[in-house]
Structures are given as C-alpha cells and as structure tokens.
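Memo to structure team: turn this sequence into structure tokens by end of day. - J.P.
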Amino acid sequence: MKRDLSLDILRGIMLLIMAADHFGEPIFQHLYEYAGYVSAAEGFVFLSGMLVALVYSRYQIKGGLILEQKIWQRAGVIYFYHLAVLLVVFIFTVLTVISGADWKSFATEMQVEPLRALLSGIVLSYQPPMLDILPMYVLLMLGAPLALRVMIHFKAAGIALVLLGSITLWGFSHQGGWHLMLQQLPSSVMVRMGAFDYMAWQLIFVLGMVAGFLRFSHRGETTQFNKPLFCAALALIVLLFCLRHGYVKPASFLGGQWLVEYPHIARDNMGWLRLLNFLAFVYLIAGLIKLHNSYGIFKPFYLVGRWLAFLGQHSLQVFAFHLVVLYCYIPFRWGDWALTDNQKWVWLVIFLSGLTLPAWIHARYQTRQGQVSVKTPTTVLPVAMQLAH
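Reply from structure team:
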C-alpha cells in the first residue's frame, strides 16, 4: 500500500501543537485547546493507533507470531526512547538540586527521592510532567496485537467485539477503575501517572486502529464523502468552539450549565463531550482530505506540508528531542535567567524550527542503514530501522 503523506502531515501538525503547548508562556494561554474541548494529544494517539493497523496488518500473511513480534519490537523502541529521556530528566533534576539553582525541575518528586523516582520511572509507574505519553504508547502497543488479531480473524464481528471491549474499559474508567488499579501497586513504588487515564485513553487508540484496519482492508480506499454528516460535524465543532470560548452561554443552550460541567469535558478520563468533539474533528479532517484528493485545495501549502510530513515520519525522535530541550529550557523560563516574553517568542520560533534536527539525523541514520542492507542483504537491520513508520 502506498504511503499516505496526509497521515504524516497530520502527525507533524500534532507534534508542532504539542511542542508549542509544552513550551508554555507566552503562547500556551492562546493555543491550548483553542479549537474546542480537544487537544493535539487525542489526534496524536488516534493517528498512532491508525498507523499500527495500517503498518502491521500486512504481517498476518506471514503466519506464526510475526505480527506480535513486530509490534512488540516497536514497543521496545518506544520504551528505549522513554528511558533515554527519563535519564536526561534525572540528570537535570539531580544537578538542579546539587547546584542549589533558583529554578525547579518539573519532576518535583524526583528532586526529593531521585533514585526511587528513577527506578519507578523505569517500570513506568512514575511519569514526570510531559513524560506520560511514551509510557502510554508502550502499554498500548503491548496490547495492540490481540485487538488486531481479533479484527483480522473475525472481520466485522471482531471489530464490534474490540470496540465493545474498549468502550467497556472506557466506561469502567469513569467509575474509578484506573485509580483502583493503581492502588494495587506496591507502596515501595512511586506512583505518578501524569495527565492521562490509560483505561480511558485506550479508546482513542482503538478507534484509530479500527479506522486503520478498515482502510487496510479496503486497500487504502477512504470512506465516501457524506455531505450531511460533514456539515453536522462542522456545526458541532463550531457550537463547541463557541461554548469553549464563551460566545454561547451554556445556561442558554439545552437548558443549563450541565453541558460543560467538568466530567463531560474531562481530559484525563476522556469525558463524553470531549470524545464527541474529537470524533467530529476526525470526520471533518477526513472530509477535507477527501476534498483535497479530488480538488487539490491544499496545493498552495505544498512546501509546508512536506516539512510537516518529514516531522511526522520521524515523530518518535522529534517528540523525545522536544522533551529533552524543554527540560533544559527551564532555567530560561523562570528565575534569574528568565527570558522576557518578546525573547520567548523568538526562541519559540527557533525551537519549533529546530525540531527538524532530530528528524534529519534519524533520516540520515535510516539512509546509512539502508545502504548497508543493500550491500549486505543478509544483514539484520536495527529494530529502529525496520519499524520506522
């Protein structure tokens, strides 16, 4: 199946938005959830699930456990990058404490008990701020082969079964299921799981897998463009955008404030209104891609699109790199060395442009490894080369 650059472009867009959000002031207050009760994280997780199904479904014909091995090897690569970033955060935090600096690391618990935090981070139970997405991907990838096997073997019934199980877990998370599981961990383990309730967020990943599997099954064909449904999705997005920013008062719509109460829009356990808002965006963007394929509506943005696709093709390396940079940026965010807002705008542009660097380095690495494999066909490529999306 031919690679769809639109998916890489979307991943590049999500990477830029998340990086800008994580950069903080002066852009965070203007950018975070600007489009409504959604964030770039939902899109990134959905696309990851979609690509898992698109990339690994082809291994079903090889028999045995090749499919499982490939996905779990990818989980190992993601885990390696998590460990690398965690080690950098550990070193930065320890040096901050030793030097008596006037700034503080985001990893506040690690400042108090550095070794315990490091060991807990290795087993994924301690996740400093911004280091919560990669561990979630590791766990999701470990469970992905089972869901994919069920869909492959039972087709429509399998898809329904996977969705039913995923929705059940999502519902259980709203009854405190995730926190109940965390309470079962030994007291010797430091527990800080970040901003995501994994039991709820797996639904976004599974929905992406289902979309990717359906596309794989139809040999890359996208769904038919439905104008009424597209308009309904657009109308819902506009309405929730207006509610999010106060252009429409909740009390005047559908009878009261209940519509935007926190449980409905909660990000940690994916409230139903947030989920609905995100699904509307999924359909809207799918429709726009369909229109572009038919009429080329985004052709004027070709060069920008190629750059975004380049970032998206090396998303793991770009994401890990941006975490390292942002922890090292802490001294210049607050304290005696803090930059002014005007200086921060300049450095934000430099920072976002600099995300090209890890993508370029990884692309060069892939090229070198590819040349080696051509010269020596029996050479086994490194895992990162084999499984790069």
